[in-house]
What we know:
Structural class of chain A: mainly beta
Shape of chain A: globular
Keywords (chains A, B): Amino-acid biosynthesis, Cytoplasm, Histidine biosynthesis, Hydrolase, Magnesium, Metal-binding, Zinc
CATH class of chain A: Alpha Beta
Order of helices and strands of chain A: HEEHEEEEEE
Protein name (chains A, B): Phosphoribosyl-AMP cyclohydrolase
Strand order of the largest sheet of chain A: 2-1-6-5
Subcellular location (chains A, B): Cytoplasm
Strand content of chain A: 35-45%
Main location (chains A, B): cytoplasm
Organism (chains A, B): Hohaiivirga grylli
Number of helices of chain A: 2
CATH topology of chain A: Ubiquitin-like (UB roll)
Oligomer: homodimer
Amino acid sequence: MTAPNAFPVLSSKSELEEGTVFAPRFDTNGLITCVTIDAHTNQLLMVAYMNAEALRKTLDTGTVWYWSRSRQELWHKGATSGQIQTLVEMRTDCDQDALELRVTVGGDGGCCHTGRLSCFYRSVQLSDGTLKLVQNSK
Amino acid sequence: MTAPNAFPVLSSKSELEEGTVFAPRFDTNGLITCVTIDAHTNQLLMVAYMNAEALRKTLDTGTVWYWSRSRQELWHKGATSGQIQTLVEMRTDCDQDALELRVTVGGDGGCCHTGRLSCFYRSVQLSDGTLKLVQNSK
């Protein structure tokens, strides 16, 4: 018997890389890494994780669900903030252990809980021999 | 005594999110997630991981080093293929547990071991009630 959210599992490297079967590879915690990108601007918005249930809900609803590692619960992104992420395209990488989510964003168009548009709002810079974080335009 | 590759550790959420100290948060395996993007085209190239040593080598050399989870060794990206990734900008996210690497790529400009420019060369599509992978233009 398979779990209701189960996805196919492939062990062949060539099937994983060249086949047409979507067989997402979850890690030992049951999670897969997601890179979320604004489909219009191509801006990197955030990195988060899905378990099989979150992935299934995302595919079923067309809006993005993650697994919150800090809260240990399913997380319908934007449910409280209005920053709902509508899935435009989902891509996977060669060995199917990461997902690229191309989305449009509701509400104010942002994603970060600090109020910035993107979570990647700081750059690492070397200044007087010390690494510092400097706010970038995001 | 600190390890030679050690980075600062911050426990305060406000310092992590709003401070100027770069304090990358490695997971229980000692790794941090890296999202690598072509600085010219803004294209998502790959997702990979660094340990503290790989991160230090990247900052010291200006070219990208990862930790290969499959081979369990340091990996100077492009050392054999010529697809060296030169770091243009490194960004971190709000809670400093992910890095955005904006790079220019040597050799043929690609990154995927399958020969494609990007590792994200397939889209997930629903066809006749079944999820299928379809090659995209990457």
